[in-house]
Model the fold of this input.
Amino acid sequence: MTIPPLDLILLLGTAQGFILAALLWFNRKGNRLPNRLLAVLVGLLASASLAVGIPIMNPWIHLFVDFVPLIIIMPLGPLMFFYTRSLLDPDFRLGKRERRHFWLVSIDFGSKLMAWIFLFGLLFGFFEHSDNRKVGSLMDDYDKYADIPRWISVTLYGLLSYRWLARFQKMNSDLTAQQRASVRWLRQFLMVFAAFQTIWFLHLIPYILPQTSNALLDAFGWYPLYIPIAVMIYWLGLGGYFHARHAVWPEPVRKSSPAVLPDELIQETTSGLIKAMETDQLYLDPELTVEKVGRHLRLPVKTVSAVLNQHLGKSFNTFVNEYRVADVKRRLNDAASANLTLTGIAFECGFNSQATFQRTFKQMTGHSPKEYVNRQAV
Done:
């Protein structure tokens, strides 16, 4: 059996896609959730590549292609969006609210459902074998126009992903080495999808028009669309795998012997820190750093850090966030803030991201913000 060169490219893309998906799924380096989200995304692209590249050697393979949904596109957009979020926010989880984004996957099963209905209709005498061509034509038309919501979905989620990434960068000016590496990779990741969406759009328009559809398929088939998919499979899977394998982890902090500070300096610094938070309300600054506090108190940064760590027993972030959480709790019980959302109150109290607020609030109170509000209402 001789496989045409273009089909061979698609089959190689399928094989490498499933291999890379498995490597990502079982990869122990990095955060497991984004690795597995990307594994599913690459696996779906590989499955679609298989649907077009598989050689029809016998009736059984033909039935397999007709009855098994290999082209599943609707989840790609949500997977791209949640991969972006989970890579930058280690606390992100897929809850019930996030899973709703995958409900539209039912669109991908429409034509295969027609095939199964026709099969059972034949068995029970509702259809004749002569109806085969009509059903096949109906399935082709369905798949043709189902590409419209598929393209719209991937495009919209791509824009949401880019917007979320841009907002993350804007609200987190002081990024760690790991976060900077993730941002660079995600920009490349989204650019590849943007390029593919452009190729898909140029193929989609003449494909859905009756006067050009048949001529386009006769001349080029699906190759102008699926050869780029094979390239994407390799690039996205390999790039995501190596990004996870070569993640930049924070260097361990070397412990040194604590500096001995005079009691008077400790008392002065402690009083200054409390005044800076309670009276001057420096915690309202979302970009507050220990350097800013040091300048405000006219004290060396090392002194401020030493007093916080050695004498108050708190990190700088914990010290500041305690005042932010206390202010959030106060405003939740204040009628003047009734028109604000939880996120709006959090931002007014100095938090610079919803994820940080949710995580910090639960750590310090034992309840999520919504749970806290519900308990107060009882």
